[in-house]
Specification:
- The structure is a single chain.
- By secondary structure, this protein is an alpha+beta fold.
- The chain has a single domain (5-255), classed as Hypothetical protein, similar to alpha- acetolactate decarboxylase, domain 2 (60s Ribosomal Protein L30, Chain: A), CATH 3.30.1330.
- The chain contains seven helices and 15 strands.
Length: 259
């Protein structure tokens, strides 16, 4: 399945192999991504790039680790992983990743945020987003963060839609936290997660994971427009557009939670 050439031009997508991606310097307002969401949906959980190589392209981001081993969060150039036991741990730069997105974060001035429940917070971020593809960093006190992670998988790998049925969820309440992530338009489904894809860590780095619910009490948002998306394609992975079934699977994988 081939991605729409008009979308490639509109989003300024540059597809590269590993050698080209490794040689390419991080550029201001560029996003760098290894592999695609479609590949993850199809159980491509063995990465061909290391976390250290990915971090050469940006200091803010998210993703996962080889074998789908937890939820990767990159804040201020430091990579940590949130696992199913609720812990948050530093990541060895030699660890490989099957999917990660980073950017050299260069935002405009912060925007103060009042108390907003999750859906209202996403709507506010939509209104603030400076471009169809945007990066965000939120800081503040959250009434509630509902987080999730998934257990590490062993070959033969099941598809992601099955894995998230066994995800582990937990709540942290009345907590200072940092939330980072990206927004992609719906047309990019398959390449990326449509809408906002967010990961969070508490300010004390005691826990973190994929965000299912974020109810903010007060805080601030910094946003950065992406003017180019560099995608490193592992062998056998191609840019593609998602059909209706794939789109539904991506939405389930990203938003499924128990309440």
């Amino acid at each position: 399945m081939a991605i729409d050439p008009d979308l490639v031009r509109a989003l300024h997508i540059v597809a590269e192999d590993r050698r080209g991606a490794s040689a390419d310097a991080a550029g201001a307002h560029h996003l760098f991504q290894t592999s695609t969401v479609s590949a993850l949906m199809d159980a491509r959980y063995d990465g061909d790039m290391t976390v250290g190589e990915v971090l050469a392209h940006g200091d803010l981001g998210l993703g996962t680790l080889c074998g789908l081993d937890g939820e990767l969060i990159v804040v201020d150039g430091v990579a940590r992983v949130g696992r199913v036991d609720g812990t948050l741990a530093p990541v060895d730069p030699a660890t490989t990743t099957p999917f990660a997105v980073v950017t050299p974060f260069s935002p405009g001035p912060p925007t103060a945020l009042p108390a907003l429940a999750h859906d209202a917070l996403l709507a506010r971020l939509d209104a603030l987003a400076p471009a169809p593809v945007s990066a965000v960093r939120l800081e503040g006190r959250f009434d509630r963060l509902r987080l999730r992670s998934v257990p590490r998988q062993r070959p033969p790998y099941p598809p992601l839609d099955e894995v998230v049925q066994r995800q582990v969820e937990w709540d942290v309440t009345d907590v200072e936290a940092v939330v980072v992530g990206f927004r992609f338009p719906g047309e990019a489904a398959g390449l990326e997660v449509p809408g906002w894809h967010l990961h969070a860590m508490t300010r004390d780095a005691s826990t973190g994971g994929h965000v299912l619910v974020a109810d903010i009490a007060d805080g601030a948002a910094w946003l950065d427009a992406a003017d180019e998306v560099h995608v490193e394609l592992p062998p056998g992975v191609a840019l593609g557009t998602a059909d209706a079934a794939m789109r539904a699977g991506i939405e389930r994988a990203e938003t499924r939670h128990g309440d």
